[in-house]
Model the fold of this input.
Amino acid sequence: MKKTSYSYVGVSFIILIFGIIVVPRIVDRIQNNDVTRSESRSKDVQMTLKDQTALSYLVINGAPKKVMPFRFMNQNGEMVTNEDYIGKVYLVEFFFSTCPTICPKMTKNLVDIQNTFPKRNDFGIASFTINPDYDTQEVLKEYAINAGVTNVNWNFMTGDKEAIYNLANAGFNLYAAKVEGAAGGFEHSGNFALIDKEGYIRSRSDAFGNPKIYYKGIISQTEQFDEDGESEDITALKEDILKLLGDEK
Done:
């Protein structure tokens, strides 16, 4: 009996010490926003805007450039148009599923961005294949699943080859071409375009006040720099998406 009483006293003493020392420290960390996402068990990714500068428009002939109208089939067999993205902030890329070079890096960075805004119904991504002869709806669906795509507004689109190339080269000036001898048979830009909720192309400005227009999609936040010393744009892109979304939720 005495042994049992001593055990209870010991447990009570430990609980008392925990209450006096540990709990106030936890409360203090919460009040000072020091608790990490995993500790708070929140599913929201917290972000803070470090750059409050307004984003520029790409101006052509005196007018802000809007996304060229498009209509293509996505990985679920649904027809998707530019109108479906009105009211959403979204990213645009051109890729192909069998790309052996930059596409896997671009997709990985887009998945990272997707996971930064897990609960935003007003955020999406538009991925257009430049090899529609091979990248059918079924191929794109498998590609999306394997990549870890969860955002319902991330459409992998296929369709008429000429229309896709016109959208890439004339609509966004994101170079895409079928090139004999190139890795995978195609060449294309490794950049992302950022589109606001009204359908305008937006970006940060350079030191001279001119819009940079695009964001490098190949270098990850973790890498920070590529082998040529080019710095990553994913950090800035996440911040700029947040700006266009209009709040910090």
